[in-house]
Write a structure and sequence with these properties.
The complex is a heterodimer of chains A (about 725) and B (about 210). Chain A has about 725 residues and is an alpha+beta fold. Chain A folds into four domains: about 1-175, Immunoglobulin-like (Sandwich); about 180-300, Immunoglobulin-like, CATH 2.60.40; about 300-575, no CATH class; about 595-705, Glutaredoxin. Helices cover about 40% and strands about 20% of the residues of chain A. Chain B has one domain: 3-Layer(aba) Sandwich (Glutaredoxin). In chain B, β1 (about 40-45) and β2 (about 50) form a beta hairpin. In chain B, about 45% of the residues are buried. Chain B contains six helices and nine strands; from the N terminus they run αβββααβαβαβββαβ. The longest helix of chain B is centred in the N-terminal third of the chain and has 24 residues, at about 1-25. Chain B is α+β, with helices and mostly antiparallel strands. The chains are: A alpha+beta (about 725), B alpha+beta (about 210).
Chain lengths: ~725, ~210
């Protein structure tokens, strides 16, 4: 809104005068532009920043360096005093702006286009005047080229003191955050039958935090700007399926651009971070005909291999601790049925197979649908939901209690209730298949990485094939056992030992419950553990009521169920989902800057020695942390401020779980990194919490506030 | 700083809108250079029907235009486009100017309006095709005004892209620019492969019927 009022003041000589004005085009210039600087003066011999500030009227936009399907980037032609030179524009990450069925890349409402000016080593004069001809195209549906001669005069600060920040310092700081950063992520682009695939290696990236990924190519031609970009993830990082542009078939050496990731921060806020990407083409030998050789990597041999791995993985799944008890009981019921009718056995086996395959198909379909909406999901994604984890813990506990003999479920779901010989029928077998699949999901990841990594990046049909293969392998042993009389003869004769075995097998189930509660504690902290305790005690209580042999209590089944449901309902609000992060352990990396590792004891020690302490709690998989480190912390200004204020810099790496860091995060009400704490030297003073999104200016301002003892920094 | 959150919201909304839009319209595939140019039937400003196949044996230039677009103004205001039209048509090239602006949008004209423009600008196309429903434009995946195509006498697409290699709205750039349509026509006439055959068409987006 204020952009409009500001526009009234600025007169822009526009070639727009040539234009036909009969359309509903707002009168006057579309963009107010001026040249600004983040400081009120400059120092001799030191490069400094200036920028073209464009304030754009509503609905109109100006363009990025690659303007997209139409349009033209803003240009600056400098007139500088002798010895001065100007860098190209450091373009902030753009937005994708749809225009009909086309897409442009550019900026709306306002943008600062920064340029670094390098002055000569010596310069006689008390001030310098920079001048540039700024030319840009402004468009909503229609386009108007505008231009303006912009000038800025800055006094030269001959003394040693640091130039003071100007009123625009915050805008420059915010724009610094919007600059794409170099992360050294290897990237590869390959041609597929459907277009292009861009694979990015960023294994440390936490996909649960990333809600959107979009690639902005630096130039027109290789990528269709307007086409949707389908995101998938594998263990190495994100992959984007792109539609090839008109030049892609003419031979592409590399694909350069900016990857924009939308990251969810723990405060519910999200931030767009840009990463510079240089993707090399996939080369399989130096043989000519790169098109065919590139496609060889995507031939069905990849699919067959994945299917094979999936079947093997499925077989191995049977031995997993979360699955084994369920299947063992099923096997025992088969042993009990060895004299039963063959027809029943075959139909039971088929029902079990159907139950497994249906579950896997549903999983694949859900994954495909969620992937289509841009969700980044992996195998076992449902365990990212604390509610699901708790429900599973409750289910496993109930099953365990049943096997321990606390209660009987009539003609039991696992056919292990009223005597092992009881038959549960095809419906029961189907349900065992579903249950076994659900139980299997958390156990699978380490065994089927290859197949899953493949499946999750492929079109839905291939993904479905791999998942069904997995299910087939999973169901195979039990099906074989059921329908082959020879195999079943190998089973031991039923007898009282089966009751003992059944009770013993309850313990792997209890162990699974313990593991699930641990998962929950990582996701939700101590509140989640309390919720789990409430629910699990209630389940145990309900099981006990249900198992009471008193016939005088006719509503025992329904009251047990109601008790469980009520406990779940009461505990749900406690399950505030924390950003799930990969629980696997990684080796902490040595930090590139001179930061000591964080411990609470070290903080206390340094403070008692009279030094303020700056603590950076970070993780390798957190891009915002990395961006903060690159654009705000690893800067000369911050290094100077650290030295100037004698601040100790400690870094805590939360890449792998670290209970001490978790405790600090929780003490400050945070569920995750980044967290920046500035402890004043006075040990009685409270630590100052810096914002989650840092800029050099914010950090320097907070550091400076330490000296003015009582100054309370702006958050 | 509140404008940042507003901007962020707008971005999010734009991305959502973009995703929805593209999901429904991404099926448009650009015609490929070296392959037969898509055939079409179009009605010109005088009501005459033209079929692309009528021009077999002749080189055809397709020019998308919108008289309100500053990039079109650059090439007509300077006389650049008219000179090329007259020079090429004198050599037997068929030049079809196509207007795909939808009714109510910038650049939309009826037959009389189109003829008036041709007279006023002293232009020399063989015909001006009115494509208000955008069918021909979408068939060719024409994106900007101007957007130029060259079709060989045997009906193959030889060039798809910009009028020249200086993608600005500044008339002063025409003098130093290489005209890519003339380049393509010359190479086709000499029987040589066209290079460059595909470039980024620059200009205003075409105001298609939504």
């Amino acid at each position: 809104m204020f952009a409009i009022t500001l526009l009234m003041a600025g007169g822009i000589p526009a070639r727009a005068a040539e234009l036909d004005e009969r359309r509903t085009e707002p009168a006057g210039p579309k963009v107010a532009a001026e040249l600004i600087a983040p400081t009120t003066s400059i120092r001799t011999g030191e490069p400094f920043k200036v920028g073209l500030h464009q304030r754009i009227i509503p609905n109109w936009h100006t363009y990025w360096k690659n303007p997209g399907d139409s349009g033209e980037p803003t240009r600056l032609t400098w007139t500088l005093p002798p010895g001065f030179s100007a860098s190209p524009i450091a373009w902030p990450i753009p937005d994708a702006i749809p225009v009909g069925h086309l897409t442009n890349f550019g900026y709306s409402s306002e943008v600062l286009l920064p340029v670094t000016i390098t002055p000569p080593a010596t310069y006689d004069g008390t001030s310098v005047t920079l001048e540039a001809k700024a030319e840009w195209l402004a468009c909503d549906k229609i386009c108007v080229p505008e231009d303006k001669i912009v000038r800025l005069t800055l006094p030269i600060n001959s003394g040693a003191s640091t130039p003071a920040p100007s009123a625009s310092a915050d805008l420059f700081a915010a724009t610094a955050r919007a600059q794409p950063v170099a992360m050294d992520w290897p990237a590869r682009v390959s041609r597929t039958s459907e277009g292009l695939r861009l694979d990015i290696q960023a294994p440390d990236l936490d996909r649960a935090r990333i809600s959107g990924v979009r690639f902005f190519p630096n130039a027109w031609g290789y990528v269709e700007h307007a086409a949707p970009q389908r995101l998938s993830w594998n263990e190495r990082g994100p992959s984007l399926s792109l539609t090839a542009g008109e030049l892609a078939s003419a031979g592409m050496k590399s694909l350069d651009g900016v990857l924009v990731l939308t990251e969810q921060l723990s405060g519910g806020e999200s931030v767009r971070n840009g990463v510079v990407l240089q993707a090399t083409t996939r080369m399989t030998g130096a043989v000519a005909g790169s098109g065919t050789s590139a496609q060889a990597a995507d031939t069905p041999s990849g699919l067959w291999q994945a299917v094979l791995f999936a079947i093997l993985g499925g077989l191995i799944l049977n031995l997993m601790p979360c699955v084994l008890p369920i299947l063992s009981i099923k096997v025992m019921s088969l042993a009990g049925e060895r004299d039963g009718g063959r027809r029943d056995q075959v139909s039971g086996a088929m029902a079990f197979l159907a139950g497994v395959l249906t579950s896997f198909a549903v999983l694949a379909a859900v994954l495909a649908i969620l992937r289509g909406t841009g969700e980044a999901l992996g195998w076992g994604f449902q365990f990212q939901s604390p509610g699901f984890v708790l429900a599973m813990a409750a289910l496993f506990l109930a099953m365990g209690l049943s096997m321990s003999g606390v209660f009987d479920v009539g003609s039991n779901i696992v056919g292990a209730g009223q005597g092992l010989a009881s038959r549960s029928g095809p419906a029961g077998s189907f349900f065992v298949g579903v249950l076994a699949t659900i139980a299997a999901t958390p156990c699978t990841a380490p065994f089927m990485g290859v197949a899953m990594g493949f499946a999750l990046t492929r079109p839905a049909i291939e993904m479905m094939a791999v998942f069904l293969a997995l299910g087939f392998g999973f169901a195979l042993p039990l099906v074989a056992l059921s329908i082959s009389d020879g195999a079943r003869r190998l089973l031991p004769r039923p007898g009282p030992w089966m009751e003992t075995l059944k009770q013993a097998l309850a313990f792997p189930l209890y162990a699974t419950v313990a593991w699930l509660v641990w998962v929950l504690s990582l996701q939700t902290g101590s509140d989640g553990v309390l919720a789990a305790a409430v629910v699990l005690v209630t389940v145990a209580f309900a099981a006990w009521i249900f198992g009471r042999p008193t016939p005088a209590f006719p509503w025992r089944a329904s009251s047990a169920a109601i008790a469980c449901a009520a406990a779940l309902a009461i505990s749900m609000p406690l399950l505030r989902a924390a950003p799930a992060s990969s629980p696997e352990t990684r080796v902490a990396r040595p930090s590139p800057d001179a930061a000591e590792p964080f411990t609470a004891a070290r903080v206390a020690e340094l403070r008692s020695a009279g030094r303020p302490v700056f603590v950076n709690l970070t993780a390798a998989w957190c891009i915002s942390c990395k961006v903060n480190e690159q654009i705000a912390l690893a800067t000369d200004g911050v290094r100077r401020a650290i030295a100037e204020h004698n601040i100790a810099y400690l870094k805590g790496d939360w890449t792998s779980r670290d209970a001490r860091i978790t405790a600090v995060l929780q003490a400050y009400g945070r569920a995750g990194v980044p967290l920046y704490l500035l402890y004043p030297a006075d040990p009685t003073a409270e630590a100052i919490v810096l914002p989650q999104l840092l800029t050099e200016a914010i950090v320097v301002r907070h550091f400076a506030s330490l000296s003015g003892a009582s100054a309370s920094p702006k958050p | 700083m509140s404008y940042f959150s507003v901007a962020r919201f707008t971005n999010a909304a734009a991305i959502v809108a973009a995703t929805i839009t593209f999901a429904s319209t991404s099926a448009v595939a650009a015609p490929k250079v070296g392959e037969p140019a898509p055939t079409f039937v179009g009605v010109d400003s005088k009501g005459k029907t033209h079929n692309l196949s009528d021009f077999k044996g002749k080189t055809v230039v397709l020019e998308w235009t919108n008289d309100g677009c500053p990039y079109v103004v650059k090439h007509y205001g300077s006389g650049n486009m008219q000179a090329l039209q007259k020079d090429l048509t004198a050599k037997g090239v068929v030049w079809l100017t196509v207007i795909s602006s939808a009714p109510g949008e910038q650049g939309h004209v009826d037959g009389a309006g189109a003829d008036k423009l041709t007279t006023a600008r002293n232009a020399g196309p063989s015909a001006v095709i009115l494509d208000a429903d955008g069918k021909i434009g979408r068939l060719y995946d024409a994106r900007t005004t101007p957007h130029m195509y060259v079709i060989t006498p045997d009906g193959k697409l030889a060039y798809n892209g910009a009028i020249d290699d200086k993608p600005t709205a500044d008339t002063a750039d025409i003098k130093s620019a290489k005209n890519l349509v003339r380049n393509a026509i010359d190479l086709v006439a000499a029987g040589k492969p066209v290079d460059p055959a595909v470039t980024r068409a620059y200009g205003c987006s075409i105001k298609y019927k939504s």
